[in-house]
Queue: 2 jobs
Job 1
Amino acid sequence: MTRFDLPVEELHRFGPDVAEPDDFDRFWAQTIAEARDAGGRVTVTDVDVPLRAVEARELTFPGFAGDPVRAWYLRPAGVATDLPAVVEFLGYGGGRGMPQQRLTWAAAGFAHIVMDTRGQAAADTADPHGSDPSVPGFLTRGIGEPATYYYRRVFTDGVRCVDAVRGLEGIDRSAVAVAGGSQGGGIALAVAGLRHDLVAAIVDYPFLCHFRRAVGMTGREPYQEVARYLAIHRDRTDAVFRTLSYFDGVNFAARATAPALFSVGLQDPVCPPSTVFAAYNAYAASVKEMVTFEFNEHEGGGAGHWPRQAGFLEEQLASAARADRKRDIPVLAAPGQ
């Protein structure tokens, strides 16, 4: 595919005016508080898989409305110390798969939590909440109102997953990172904007960013779901984009504080580079990096990018450890005091 978006030098300066509702923070504070108040049990059970170097467990935690959400909890075998954790969110239509498909982070010495995405085709977690009529897919489910929108539940699940992980035995609660690509990158970005206790965020070619531009720019799925919906419901354009403004990754990015590593393929027709850069340029943390892949589409950097992700996370863990040591140094009184 030929490049169709802005030149890279313009991408780095791209700072669009993205709609942000006045009650954005109140909406999300209330949503998360209600989910926490709903209660529910966190359970961890062993999984019978023939892995020797990695321990596999199933984590079930209460997500939106206390609904049970499933995840894998993987860690290097025989390691009793508290480990830094990577909470991974998944791409559109996918699910957590099988433990043997998710070994990389645990093999590198991290605890790895892989959250299911409720209701999606390959998931093991149901979405028990109905919605108004929508076109096939997930992007228009409940889109009539922010309170009923599908991604309100998914983003809340992401926040509650980190809540659960921080309470697990064997986790260093000061060293929890979030990660994901495409839809998973959008979820990671939302979680990074909704909490300020993360050591890092790894955000690859995120979906769910700058909806107004994406829906009008690309004819590819899943953004095309919104275009098809509005082609039928011609009088709902303003209401639809008002709902989407509560879920736009650009608005979450503006509230994020965790150091972040972004990436994007400059020929990506699914999540156009300018929508990714809109979130990156708005990202509020003082430490952030963008990696671009000039000739790649939605696959981004693929497996070849993982060593850079692991290196970035190690850098942030080391930086956090140095900051902790500095805080622990006693302040000595000046001579004569």
Job 2
Amino acid sequence: MMNDSLPLQDFNASLQAFLDASPTPFHAVVSMAQRLDVAGFQRLDESDDWVLEPGKGYYITRNGSSIIAWRQPAVDAAVNLGWRLVGAHTDSPCLKVKPNPELHRQGYFQLGVEVYGGVLLNPWFDRDLSLAGRVSYRDDEGRIKSALLDFEQPVAVLPSLAIHLDREANASRSINAQTYLPVVMGQADEKPDFRALLKQRLEVQGVAEVETVLDYELCFYDSQGAALVGLNQEFLASARLDNLLSCFIGLQALIDGGEAAAGQVLVCNDHEEVGSMSACGAQGPMLSQWLERVLPDADQRNRSLSRSMLISADNAHGVHPNFSDKHDGNHGPLLNGGPVIKINANQRYASNSETSALFRHLAEQVEVPVQSFVVRTDMACGSTIGPITAAELGVKTLDIGVPQFAMHSIRELAGSQDAHGLYKVLQRFLQTDQV
């Protein structure tokens, strides 16, 4: 039976805490794993032999940045009812530190960065930036280990050039990613050793056995936390709403969904923002390899997939009051107007009439309004893990999302009610025996 839904206020408070604790995909997966542990899910290692019990919850991670969590059904239920899958992605566009990043210019210590994904670059200037990610090191006994690192406090800034030195800035300034984006870390008489700085920070965090920092995957992030804003707190403002918002919604729906006859699955992949082609991305083998292990018989697996459905949750473009002409006039989703079914005739989204109809039906049952998005016919359409996963597994799929503004900015904006609405619909989806 389905558990009670979290009240809106409690849901948003938990969501904000999750966003603030998840500055990188690595941290997001740790945050999700901690919540799954509390909910009684058992962590499994992909290198171990698995003994799975029907009705019990499990999860695995890959690369520390992708996660699959599920409740194991009985074999006959998996075959006859299939799986209810919710998919999202853990990564967000950002600025990543280069391997040899140190710069020393005009007495300032700077780090060179690489642009990850389709970043909206202008908003990164004049923000209080911190730094987080994964660091790999050799310990005192010669073993190679990794640890997560988060400076937490603001340690960097990307200052704008004054308008007095570029009078055309408001009319024509474009950003050269190579020359304009090195981040200012502070002042120094000579070029510091960045790896030595990381070693020092790891020791501050309690990792005392570091002999040498060998490599890292680090990105800058906005140190300002998530907040409810607006005269009546109508909006949620935060970094990484695309797509940690969907990760949290799917996670909470799975935890609160309760047991069901059909299999219940949450998959959150890394690398969606750069094409999903990786060992832990949606275009990689992670999900199909997992499915082969939880349902080993190929004939049973194919029969099960024919009775399964995936909901790919990735945020949608809300109609902006200052740029309403960027939307089709009949398909401009409103913030706090409910989750959005995303449709594209050229299969950039995987929705079809049957999967859309089921979602509308489930939303009616929990009294959540539903909207639609179709990109203007004269504009290109983005995509999601939906079509990729549908093609990899052959599973019927729906693309949906919470409407938002400022997608791919350093700070994005969504309605404060929409995530909770989608959470209630996904709870019901994980319980349904009808796909």
